[in-house]
Amino acid sequence: MVVAIQRMLVLGGALLGAASASWPVVAAPAQPALPVAGLLLLLFLLLLLALAYALKLKFDLKRALQPKPDMQGFYSLHDDISGFPNKYALQRQLDLILKSAPEQQFALILLKIEQFEQINQLLGHSNSNLILAQIAQRINDQLASESKILTFEYRQQQPVRVCHLGSVDFAIWLDIGHQPARAEFLAKQLQQSVPQPMLVHGCAIDYKLGVGIALYPDHSTELNELLERAYLALQHYQWQRGASSLFSQDMINYTTEKLALMAELRQAIDDQQLVLFVQPQMNMKSRQVLAAEVLIRWRHPKKGLLAPEAFLALAEEMGVIYPLSQWVLEQAIQTIASLTEQQLVSRIAVNISSKELLHDELVDALEVLFDKYQVNPQLLMLEVSERALLADPPRAMAMMQRLHRLGVELALDDFGTGFSSLAFLRKLPVQYVKVDCSFISELHKTEAHMAITGAIIDMARNLGLGVIAEGVEGAEVEDKLLRMGCQRGQGFWYSQPFELSGFPAWLRQWQHRHPG
Length: 516
Hints:
Number of helices: 20
Protein name: Diguanylate cyclase
Structural class: alpha/beta
GO molecular function: cyclic-guanylate-specific phosphodiesterase activity
Shape: elongated
Keywords: Membrane, Transmembrane, Transmembrane helix
CATH architecture of the largest domain: Alpha-Beta Barrel
InterPro entries: Cyclic-di-GMP_PDE-like, EAL_dom, EAL_sf, GGDEF_dom, Nucleotide_cyclase, Rev_trsase/Diguanyl_cyclase
Distance between the termini: 112 Å
Strand content: 15-25%
Radius of gyration: 38 Å
Helix content: 40-55%
Number of strands: 18
Strand order of the largest sheet: 9-10-12-13-14-15-16-17
CATH superfamily of the largest domain: EAL domain
Number of domains: 2
Largest sheet: 8 strands, mixed, barrel
């Protein structure tokens, strides 16, 4: 500041000198070249100018040092897709909470959007990211009245209570007091209320929420370890539907058991411990047997007879699902040949997964088997789920077209539970749709299931497709299906599954009792 004033004084002196040099010389009484009052005024003005300059410098310096809005800081605490607080934000909040209330009991509720990769493949990253953000918002909206949940911040006076851990995983921190059951109760509420279908480009997008719960401090006092426990509980929940979503120490042993089961499955294939069962499909009016679906089982030497839910997912994880499926297909085609020799006519239906459907050698392998056993391809029905088609829609559609040209009958399995799209369905070369048993088994109990089943049957008939009702377990259900226009059914009302080797004898006896 002193330097600035000195500069101003020098500048002022120079200006005065230049001005005095240009003034005309006039004879006058002797007096000072510049009155003292004028000099003082000029000095005062120069001082004011220097002071203003100094104040401006100070203001500019202060403004430069002020913190600016830090968007980078925002994204360090928030997920860049959903905009919700991330794991780091959760850790910061917990550090504060647990210091102030170390004896309190909490629950970490982990939520995972199941099979989201299929949505991603179907709609692309930009659309799937939008859906992901919408699901996160739906979860948060359901928590608006839950005051016992950790609140990260407020947006437009609405609490933000969901943590986005990344990918399709979310977390909620709940104060449970002395009631651990509150966590499972809340989780089930979210599972029921959040997954409402979203309509995107004419396609109804369905999804489910997987749940895993870990308790503080019972299961751990560290966030990372609590998350590991919650993930383990979620895997257990997915592996055994209907199981508890709350972590227990037994789940650690269960994971070890699962790894052992994976090793045993490889040996089971080599040792021929796998066996095929069969369940007939009927014309519900005439009682004529139209087809029979083969169902795989595992005769485990220690655990007994295992249903496919216990090991098929393992087979996919291990990469042995294709050779396993080839074995099933050969057994089915060999059975068709045996039935033909005995002058017994019945189609055999086989389920195939997305990995099988996308395998380039599937059609070639079927052609070899048809030629080997001299079987008409029309006597084989392949059942493909909606979800299997969406693993890679273009390749799946191309493979379905190849199978159709081969002459194989095609059915869309579990219809009504996946990504139902009328436009997509019309392009598929399928002859039948199978209505999922979850609708059929409750058909006589709720009007909603009856309305949905009726709509599916009407839509299929309008498209010229046959309908197979899965899970028919009583006369009342059968009667309602017939009145809706569905002619074909499968379920315990006709027969429980039995070994495929006994199907020819069973079919001969059935045809004798029901000559049709």
